[in-house]
Amino acid sequence: MAAAVGYGAMKPTKLGVEESHETLNRIRITLSSRDVKNLEKVCADLVKGAKDKQLRIKGPVRIPTKVLHITTRKSPCGEGTNTWDRFEFRIHKRVIDLISSPDVVKQITSINIEPGVEVEVTIQDV
Amino acid sequence: MGGKKKKSFIDKKRSATFTLVARDSASSSDPLSSNRVFVRTDNHYDYSVPGFLDSDEEQYNRHDESSIFADAVEESGARYAGRSNGSGLPEEVRKEILELGLPDDGYNYLMHLREIRNQGGGSAYYENPRARFNLVPLDVKAYDASRVRLNSDAVKDDEPGVDTIYKVASKSAPVRVQKAIDPDVIRLLDDSDLSRFGSDVEDLEEDFVLMANQPDGEEDENGDVQVKNSCADEEAVYERESDSEVDDEMDDVVQQRVRRPLDDAFDEAFKEYLSSDEDNGPIFGDENQADLEEKLKGALKDFNLEDSVQEEVYKAPADSVKDDQESAQVIRKCTEYAQKYLNESEGEEREVVLVSESSDESEMWDCETIVSTYSNLDNHPAKIEAPGNPKRRLPPKSIPFPGELGAGKDVITLGGKEMLPVNYLPQRRKIMEGLVREKLGSAEKPKKVVGEESKEEKKERKVALKNERREARRAKKELKGLYKSETQRAQKAVAVTGPSSIHLM
Asked: Where is the composition biased (Basic and acidic residues) (chain B) (predicted)?
């Protein structure tokens, strides 16, 4: 029920006059990175930017970190005590949902970006 | 969970997905546009978001046939539906390919065309405004043959100008010969006044003497003038033979110079000098002239040898000897004796003088005698024999020496090759160690096979061995000191009898 309401509805309180003339889309921004600090920074900036523009935003959802392990022998040959290296590769993912017009989102995402953070935007008509 | 799956915020199948990627900066990049652009990553082209992409992002998302990724392997087959039939290329593209002369086989050759710009990799063309391609020397070399003198055979007439090439050549045309010489070199060669190399103060020209003498025209100076003229001529010729582009002004260097009062004074002085030329004597005093000459001529008269050099007949030095000299007397005496001898030998019998020589049979030298001529200090002559079996000297040890059994402590037994006292002098290390071991009373451990003994046992063994050795060394030193006098005596004895290689102390 609640989902059905949310599917096509817009919250009138948060919409400004300009927005009512433009098409609104559901936008999902997926941020992924290996570096948590940068990622959190980008997320915070995005959320702040969206809140400034009075957009309806669903705050950064933290997807569980995927850790990829690589375990290899330290030695280049087979000789010696069998020591192993354990490398890991962490991928952090954050998802932000917005409802707004696409150009606004464009503005927000173009302002800040840290190196190493990958941004993916999925747009759907409401 | 029994309920239906919650409606997700975004339906992936009905949405457009964009990824933020770095801009490819080869294409037009102005500083105002950002580094990153949104590129569509999904394939649902029926759903498009009109307001999301800018104009330059649009170009990234264009899926032309002419883009460089056009022939990449597609992941979905949806795009094939949009292609035209036939060769697979749009008509404009085909037309352009045909215009360029490339074959029309459905392959888009236009994607290999590249705009010439100043960017790009190493194959970019850079227009060099100062490049001069016409300076490359020509394959054809042109020589200046205007001064070639023809052979007299080829010349028919006696006309003066006929032996040049021009008369003989069937066709001659003026050709501008472009010489591959640096303009700097030409400038240097052209430098006729050479004012850069001379000093500015210098007032004289190069052949100032010539120029000075020419207006005078005196007879005495003709010789000099002619010499100088010829010199000048040589110079002129030399210059002519060099680069023909050199100006002919060089030949006309001789000019009239403005006369100065100094020139007049110089002329007068020169005239005076020439007029006083009759003296022909040295500059210093005239009175001593005659005396000096006579003195010089008479100085060497005493030492005058016969001028044997100037005569035509060859004479040996002995022949040219005069009678009043000593050497002449000696030579005369020698000749007299020789003649006497010759005359004598014809007459009487010759006396035979025997000189004692050593013949081969009377003397017999051998090594011994020769060696015996040497001093006995240096060598001890003996007859050299083949080395025999050294063991033959002693009877085998199995046979007891008659005196051995009765040998007690007081008897010093001699043994070995050199018949030295046995068991009398300080002995070798191992035996000393054995003694020490007896003294210390340590029992020898049964020798284990290496590898079976453990580390501690090995260590113990080694330490014990070390101790033994240390004790043995100490005991040896003690004993050595005790019996030093005895060793000296033994050494003396050995020195006389045996070879000198034995050192006992």
From this structure: 442-471, 478-489
Single pTM value for the model: 0.32
Asked if A33 and A116 count as a contact pair (C-beta separation under 8 A), the reply is yes
* pLDDT of the residue at B131: 74
Q: Which residues of B492-504 are buried (b: 16+ CB within 10 A; e: fewer)?
A: eebeeeeeeeeeb
Tokens of B262: 């100094």
Q: Which one of B9, B36, B47 has the shortest CB-CB distance to A97?
A: B9
Q: What is the pLDDT of residues B202-211, one digit of tens each?
A: 566 777 777 7
How long is chain A? 126
* A32: chain B residues, CB-CB within 8 Å: none
Contact flag B12-A110 (C-beta cutoff 8 Å)? no
Reported as a single tens digit per residue, the pLDDT across B398-409 is: 555 555 555 555
Helices (H) and strands (E) in chain B, counts: 13, 4
For residues B483 and A47, what is the distance between their CA atoms, to the nearest angstrom? 107
Is-contact B146 B166, C-beta < 8 A?
A: yes
How far is residue B186 CA from its own chain's centroid? 37
A51-91 pLDDT tens trace: 888 888 988 999 999 999 999 989 898 888 888 889 999 99
- Rounded distance between C-alpha atoms, residue B335 and residue B351, angstroms: 22
| Helix (H), strand (E) at residue A49 | helix A36-52
- For chain A, first and last CA: distance in Å? 17
Q: DSSP alpha helices (H): ranges in B279-423?
A: 288-299, 326-347, 367-373
| Mean pLDDT taken over chain A | 82
A25: which chain B residues are within 8 Å (Cβ-Cβ)? 49
